[in-house]
C-alpha cells in the first residue's frame, strides 16, 4: 500500500514539474544576453569582494603579527593578537574561495553570450534585378555576428 502511495506521489510530482522544465529550456537571444550580463556582474562582485577580503585579511594578519611580536619581546604575549592572526587567515581563505567562485560565472557568461550570438535569425535581402519576375526579395537566414 505504501509503495502505491509513493508511486502516485512520484508520478504526480513528475507531471507537475514537466511544464516548468520545458519552459525553462526555451530561451531567446535577449534571454541569453540578459543571463550573461547577470552572470558577469555577479562574477565581478565575487571577484572584487574576494580580493578586498584577501587584502583586509592580510592587513589584519600584518598588524596583529607586529603587535604579537612586540608584546612577546617583553615576555608578555597577548592572546588577542594571536586570535587576530587566525581571524585574518580565515578572511584570506574566504576571500580566495569567493574569487575562485567567480571563475565559473565568467565562463558561463561567455558561453551564454556565444549562444545568443548563434541564435540570430533575420530576413536577409536578395539582390536580384528589379524585373526578375515573382522572386522573393528576402529569405529567412541565420546570421552570426562577430564583434571586433
UniProtKB/TrEMBL annotation:
It comes from the Bacteria. Keywords: Membrane, Signal, Transmembrane, Transmembrane helix. Residues 1-24 form the signal peptide. The chain crosses the membrane at residues 43-66, 87-107. This is Uncharacterized protein. It comes from Mariniradius sediminis.
Amino acid at each position: 500500500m505504501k509503495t502505491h502511495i509513493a508511486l502516485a506521489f512520484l508520478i504526480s510530482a513528475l507531471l507537475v514539474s514537466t511544464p516548468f522544465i520545458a519552459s525553462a529550456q526555451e530561451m531567446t537571444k535577449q534571454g541569453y544576453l540578459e543571463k550573461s550580463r547577470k552572470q558577469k556582474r555577479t562574477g565581478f562582485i565575487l571577484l572584487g569582494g574576494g580580493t578586498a577580503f584577501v587584502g583586509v585579511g592580510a592587513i589584519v594578519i600584518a598588524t596583529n603579527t607586529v603587535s604579537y611580536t612586540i608584546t612577546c619581546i617583553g615576555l608578555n604575549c597577548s592572546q588577542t593578537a594571536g586570535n587576530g592572526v587566525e581571524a585574518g587567515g580565515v578572511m584570506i581563505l574566504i576571500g580566495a574561495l569567493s574569487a575562485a567562485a567567480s571563475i565559473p560565472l565568467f565562463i558561463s557568461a561567455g558561453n551564454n553570450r556565444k549562444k545568443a550570438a548563434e541564435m540570430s535569425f533575420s530576413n536577409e535581402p536578395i539582390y536580384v534585378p528589379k524585373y526578375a519576375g515573382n522572386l522573393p526579395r528576402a529569405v529567412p537566414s541565420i546570421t552570426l555576428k562577430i564583434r571586433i
